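FAQ

Q: What does a record look like?
A: Structure on top, sequence underneath. For example:
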């Protein structure tokens, strides 16, 4: 488990970078688990018109209890694989939040 968590998050000068594989058009918003170097998240919004990205940011904001303005997509804006920059958030706090999701997926 530790390897999967630590592979999907990286420390940055500006905060923490979280690597996500996003699945849009899901039946509900949820964290599915870990696979290799990312955390898999399902979002109920469609991928068109940036709706899934906005929903992802809202979902992460609620999950981590931080303002949406602290979350930005730094790569993968039009891809399922995204890198999110979480500013004003500690690496250790994110590790603690991720340990709740101990499901390793393939």
């Amino acid at each position: 488990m530790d390897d999967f968590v630590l592979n999907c998050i990286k420390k940055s000068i500006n905060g923490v970078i979280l690597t996500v594989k996003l699945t849009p058009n899901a039946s509900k918003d949820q964290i599915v688990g870990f696979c290799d170097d990312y955390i898999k998240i399902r979002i109920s919004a469609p991928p068109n018109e940036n709706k899934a990205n906005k929903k992802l940011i809202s979902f992460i904001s609620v999950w981590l209890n931080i303002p949406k303005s602290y979350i930005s997509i730094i790569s993968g804006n039009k891809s399922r694989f995204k890198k999110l920059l979480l500013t004003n958030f500690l690496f250790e706090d994110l590790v603690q939040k991720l340990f709740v999701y101990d499901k390793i997926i393939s």
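Q: Is there anything notable about this one?
A: The chain has one domain: 2-98.
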